Amino acid sequence: MEGGRAAERVFAIILALACVASVCFSASIPRHTGSAEEERFFAWLEGNGARLPRVGLGDFPGMGRGIRAVKRIREGATFIRIPSKLLITEERIDASSLAAAARRHGVYLTQDQKFNAFVLLEDAKENSFFRPWFDTLPKRDPRGTTWPLFYANDELAELQKSPLVDNVRSLQKRIEDEYSHLENALFSQDRDLFPASAFTLEDYKWAASIVSSRFWIIRGQKTGVPFADMFNHKAWPANDRRTYDFADFHFVTLRDGARVVADRSTKAGEQVFETYGQQSNDVFFTYHGFVSEGNPNHCVKITDFRLGTGILDAKEKHYAKRVKILELVGVSPVAASCVYYGSIPRDMVAMARVSCMTLAELRQVKKSPELVFRDDAISAISEEQSRDLLYLYFQKKLGTYATTIEMDEDMLETGRLSARMETIVRMRLEEKRILRRAASLLQPTASSTRSTPPIPPSETTTHASEGESDESKVDVGDRDANRDDVAERPWIVGIEDRAAAWLVAAGLQDAAAASVVYYAEMTIAMGITFALGNSLLRCGRRSSGPRRRVLLPDGAARAVIRAQQERVRQDEANAAPAGSQAAAKPQRRSRRK
Predict the structure, then answer these.
(1) pTM
(2) Residue that wins the pLDDT comparison between 13 and 170
(3) Which 3-state string (H, E, C) describes 183-230?
(4) Alpha carbon separation from 191 to 194, 205, 359 (Å, rounded)
(5) Beta bridge partner(s), residue 60
(6) I need a labelling partner for 455 at 20 to 30 A (CA). Which of 10, 225, 412, 523 fits?
């Protein structure tokens, strides 16, 4: 018994010491950085009923100000409560002097315009109720901020071929149009309330950036929540399969105010992160001014991939049949897709397969359209050609950027970029990584029956794609030399180039070593290219009539074949005696008769 009581006393002492240590450690973590504005901010929050027992503010390298845990926070626990009187809501704005002025001048305000103008109006007041909060917000710095609303055209050009450029320019124009409308209809009509010095276009852009980057949007309703707007974003780990939404951890009502539930556990002294939701980097860049590296929700938008891109057009004989099959499975012949890291959009796969189907395959799939989403829906050759088509597309898309992935990575490693330029480079780098990964998924492997990759002809090759052929201009060159040429430049070639590429990859120029081997290989090659072109190599044809049913433009293929035939004839003529050569000609003429 005495031993048991002694053990209990020891346990109680250890527990007490642990509690004291925990309290002392928590007490040693400052609640803010010590600045006067943050002291006023905390006094304002807690004086008006905010409950923040486990958190404070801190400065974090590369992120600036954020929220720090002063005590351990468990996932699922409510750790921030902000009362309604501290919130900026649409109901508060509708009862403000801004709404009264708008009604007086007959100006209708959208939700965005209400919040932007209200923030600007309250920031212009020295005695604003929200002054302690607004003093902690990012200052006006048009050249230093990473908010894209302040980007100049030359800075947007650094995004290179990113589809995000048009999105940012569209947002800039919308905000400029909003300001122009409000300036003419409202601000200029009441300068006592809206002083010109505080209501410039740059001021309005600042207010719009504050609202878009810091205010909550839950079920379509915006809310400004002081202190809770200072979280930095951090996505869930890639292996975390839980589904979540911003509204699952953030709650707001007019009666109870706002509260935040922890979406992860955080130790005392560490930065408290939250997710801004399952958003693409397009949203983070455009509205928040940052890029989340390795974001599993980021994608590259594709709008220029169409049925038969690069190989077919609307005049192709069976183009309408291909469109009909896509319609049956709910796929548009014009892509509006998002390419995520490590995956290819199913609508692009379907378009590529339908583009490469033979007539027999089109008839088969028409009976069961869902087959377009199956790997075994078409022949192996057609499937490889569809992968080839997508591979070429992603390679070409990647090649439109002015810098490579390696160049961008080197720029970031120097550490000499401005905050704005660093954000831009990170954004375009994430896009390039997604495109490169997509291409790598489609790249021919050593076990593939395709060439790996198909070898384009040398730069001196001329194609007779218009029906003309001039053998003297065709120079396929040595196969190894062609491979060296490929290594010196990216494999982004036109469909016409791939006609000679296919023949070169098949090794036809080696047939010149012996006439028997030559004619055997030529018979096979011509049989595949012309006799079986309609069933095996239909993909990629540019059909202007019933005879143009080959893998690629037949003029280029014929030009290369003629060049090989002429080369063999010349070799035979040089090697054979004059008498035997003369005797051979009548025999060939007699066979033609």
Answers:
(1) 0.69
(2) 170
(3) HHHCHHHCCCCCCHHHCCHHHHHHHHHHHHHHCEEECCEEEECCCHHH
(4) 5, 19, 72
(5) 64
(6) 523
Chain segment 103-121, per-residue pLDDT in tens: 999 999 999 999 999 999 9
Which pLDDT score, from 0 to 100, does residue 563 have? 56
Q: Is 6 left (phi over 0), alpha (psi -120 to 50) or beta?
A: alpha
Q: If you count them, how many residues does the chain have?
A: 593
Rounded CA gap, 456 and 471, in Å?
Answer: 18
Q: How far is CA 485 from the centre of its chain?
A: 31
Partner residues linked to 28 by β-bridges: none
147 CB-side CA count, 13 A: 22
Would you say residue 445 has pLDDT above 60? no
β-strand partners of 88: 224
What backbone torsions phi and psi does residue 128 show, to the nearest 5 degrees?
Answer: -60, 145
User: In the predicted model, what is the mean pLDDT of the chain?
Assistant: 76
Q: Is 233 exposed, middle or buried (0-12, 13-18, 19+ CB in 10 A)?
A: middle
Answer whether 342's CB lies under 8 Å from 437's CB: yes
pLDDT bin (cut points 50, 70, 90) of residue 79 is very high
530 alpha carbon, distance to own chain's centre = 41
Per DSSP, 511 falls in state G
Report CA 419 to chain centroid distance, whole Å. Answer: 21
